[in-house]
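Go through this fold for my students:
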Amino acid sequence: MESSFDSCELYLSGVILVILDIKCVTISCVLLRILKEYAMSSLEERNEEIKDLYMKHINPSLMRLVAFMGYDFIEDHASGSHVFDIMGNDYIDCLGGFGVFALGHCHPKVVEAVKKQLNKMPLTSKELLVEPYARLAKKLSEISPGKLQYVFVCNSGTEAIEGALKLARIKTHKSGLIYTERAFHGKTMGSLSVTGREAFQLPFRPLIPGAKKVTFGDADELEASIDNDTAAFVVEPIQGEGGIHVPPDHYFPKVQKICREKGILLIIDEVQTGMGRTGKMFACEHWGIEPDIMTLAKALGGGVMPIGAIMGTASVWEVFEENPLIHSSTFGGNPLACAAALAAIEAIEEENLPEKAAIAGEKFLGALKVMVDAHPGIIKDIRGRGCLIGVEFADDDIGGLMISALAARKVLVAFTLNNHSVLRIEPALGISDDDIFRILQAIKESVIEVEAISESLSA
């Protein structure tokens, strides 16, 4: 795909060919320079126009933050691990849309499946049967852990969590929920009520009642928090927005045992960790966990379509017997999104992306841990699994400087939402060795630059 800058170059090349044809080489060079400057000026004006529209019509504060980080350019097109802006700059996407682009950008298999369905029937009548939905549900039940058999397809991760909480309450006839400190499950009212960050919750209180917070990784605290009104425990297998926290290996087997013994439902949030991100198709498989309910989104759409899903056991799905419309969604299960998800799963399996994510993760973690020893005053810790890695810096300010330094080196990164001192590394699962090297080199150079700034400020 041609960028806006490439189109200008193509036009200019045609002009120069005409000029060269009349043997005016010197004049052609001058005109080329003038025309290039004009083209660049036009693109810069367009970029400034969009920045102004963000300020006037979208989110002024967000626009200022993006500008501070050095990401204030219009994205034009993307492919694989690379994103290109209208000025022709090539960025390595190490953020991956917060976990959306497990297959990279514009994966041809997913794009083709969506195009085919788009020309056939993009949305559903909501009365007749939807074949892509049925086939997706079957496929998900085949690849998911434990006895997850049924699927409700929605449009996003926060919608999936909302539905999961509703199912837990109606199934158990109880209202209490337990979640973990630093957890992130979304920002709509129900999911926000089980998101463990005060800054997000406080402005919207009172939230839904009966939600308790416990320490991630402490099964004993979970057990002590369960009472007669507890319906479910909702938890991420690896905390994403909380700062990429991997629990101790004994945690989840004990959690599952407690939930079974106490008769509460275990809801596993795989919105960010699922679809091969951590080296397994689903992160809970690292510990042999069998959820009662599991939520999916982000990478499920193959980086092309928004989609979320709630999965449940046959026992949980009994809640639909009395009223099959007890939970519904106008756009949920639409054939366009389901076609994308089916193609995405096929691509993940065919390309063995979970294994590739595990291998890439080992390369990242190995190199980054060397940097911890070399720069202890800047880097505090490295942690993660597969292609979900967190680099924790000494404080939030250093984290912000690192993002700006990496932006200058054309690497797209961001901090985790619930911990701004942690830089997330979340690339495409099939990222090339060349791109891994370029990212690691950019991080190394940025650490040295930020370390020098920090030392000069403290001198």
About this structure: The chain has three domains: 4-79, 82-105+353-458, 108-350.
